[in-house]
Automatic annotation (TrEMBL):
Taxonomic path: Bacteria, Bacillati, Actinomycetota, Actinomycetes, Micrococcales
Protein name: Tryptophan synthase alpha chain
Organism field: Microbacterium aquilitoris
Keywords per UniProt: Amino-acid biosynthesis, Aromatic amino acid biosynthesis, Lyase, Tryptophan biosynthesis
Binding partners and assembly: Tetramer of two alpha and two beta chains.
Keyword Methyltransferase in record: no
Protein encoded by which gene: trpA
Amino acid sequence: MTSRVAAAISAAKEAGRGAFVGYLPIGYPDLQTSIDAAVALAENGADILELGPPYSDPVMDGVVIQEATQAALAAGFRFRDTFTAVRAIAERVDVPIVVMTYWNPVFQYGVDRFADDLAAAGGAGLITPDITPDAAADWIAASERTGLDRIFLAAPSSTEERIKMIAEHSTGFVYTVSTMGITGERAELDAAARALVDRLRTHGVENACVGIGISTADQVDGVLEYADGAIVGTALVRALRDGGVDGLAATARELSQGAGPHAVTA
């Protein structure tokens, strides 16, 4: 099956630019607004949407995202709302939608059931920050069966053996962690990100998208000098918090300029 995520990255390359991947939590500030926000993000430059179901123990999330996800949970978010959101967004925009979630909710929901429901809703894949390929046999089988992309994380601390395993089992792209630590904006991205992309290339990775700490168009541009995509989360969540959907759209347009020319709405 053709990877919709890889196809989106390839289309960006053919247009002479890198891919802009935008993250938003589902259900913040409420479910419908989060759907409208994701649509606005796609309409204003995002090549790939990354949606995060709120989770009670978000060990990787920075303060801004944690506050948003806790607000979503307090407002009544349920894991099944993930599929409602994906379906509603997919009906309005033709941009690949990947879900980024910790493994426990998927395990509790049922791996095959999750894969079937995500595919039926129009989702394109899953990013799993806290499970590695050697522990993900059920998910690898389910993703093969349903055609969903499986996106594993590589970090600067990953061993060469782990890098090789991630390269062999990831589809769509490899989520390349720019620095050790939690998500959030940083004044300077670690040089470790460039070195990590180089290591992934030696193991045959075609699409490496860098995330964590990217918050400006200049940083997007800098990352895309050596990577295939730039992932932005905190800056978008802050824009939604402070300026609503319109504020988010404006920030998305600004950030997308760092990835190169886009056809965005006015």
